[in-house]
Specification:
The longest helix is centred in the first third of the chain and has 14 residues, at 51-64. The protein is α/β, with parallel strands linked by helices. Helix content is 32%, strand content 24%. It is globular, with a radius of gyration of 16 Å. α1 packs across α2 (29-38), α2 packs parallel to α3 (51-64) and α4 crosses α6. It is built from seven helices and seven strands; from the N terminus they run αβαβαββαβαββαα.
């Protein structure tokens, strides 16, 4: 994919201006797409555990979109993040490094940084079976269920493009509920995160993959994930 593809995947969810985060930003493919769509006055926090990748990201954004305010934050997306209140966030090919039984918790924690009605945009391989390089992907139907389990609403697919890895990549938008809005409450089967993972069909086909994926995630930055 090139810059035009990245922009097209995000376009219907990102409006000019506002404050967004790129979670697992890496070298900046989707940070640049966000900057292009937000335009002058937009604000972006790029988050990644790889500080060197973030420096390259920052150079690229400042060179191409100097009117966009960019800050970087070196941190693991699976841990606590000190972020401002956001109009939206993008998690592009980064959540598949989170083990299945932690994905709902991490998504819920990320969504807590959104304003009411803030947009949670995920870009992910449209597959439920991973490999050593993409250990824990989730298809769009699986994202619908993950988002609901994490308390997000209004989920819709906003784009899909072919990929030489795992067939296709999709983009989807969900929202944090507005204040006072009723959201679906998890039933008995969703009283734990692991139960939620089982209920949405995201248990690993191979038990060995879970450990392999966790070790892979710890050993390399989300920046090094293929984004095409």
């Amino acid at each position: 994919m090139d810059h035009a593809d990245h922009v097209a995947l995000l376009r219907s969810a990102v409006k000019p201006g506002g404050s967004w985060a790129d979670i697992g930003a890496g070298h900046g493919a989707f940070t640049l797409a966000l900057a292009d769509l937000l335009g002058p006055g937009g604000r972006i926090v790029a988050v990644d555990r790889d500080a060197r990748a973030l420096r390259e990201n920052e150079r690229s954004v400042r060179a191409r979109f100097p009117a966009v305010e960019l800050s970087t934050f070196a941190a693991d997306l699976g841990g606590p993040l000190d972020l401002p209140e956001l109009d939206g966030l993008v998690a592009a090919n980064s959540l598949h490094y989170i083990p299945r039984d932690r994905q709902v918790t991490v998504i819920r924690d990320l969504a807590a940084h959104l304003r009411p009605a803030g947009r949670f945009v995920v870009v992910e391989y449209d597959a439920d079976r991973g490999n050593p390089w993409v250990p824990h992907p989730f298809s769009y139907p699986a994202w619908e269920r993950l988002a609901e389990a994490a308390g997000l609403v209004g989920t819709r697919r906003i784009g899909r493009v072919p990929s030489r890895f795992l067939d296709a990549i999709y983009a989807a938008e969900s929202r944090r509920p507005t204040e006072g809005a009723e959201t679906a409450q998890p039933g008995p089967a969703l009283t734990s995160v692991s139960a939620a993972a089982r209920s949405i069909g995201l248990t690993d086909a191979s038990r060995g993959m879970g450990r392999q994926g966790t070790d892979f995630y710890r050993s390399r930055s989300s920046a090094s994930a293929s984004r095409s």
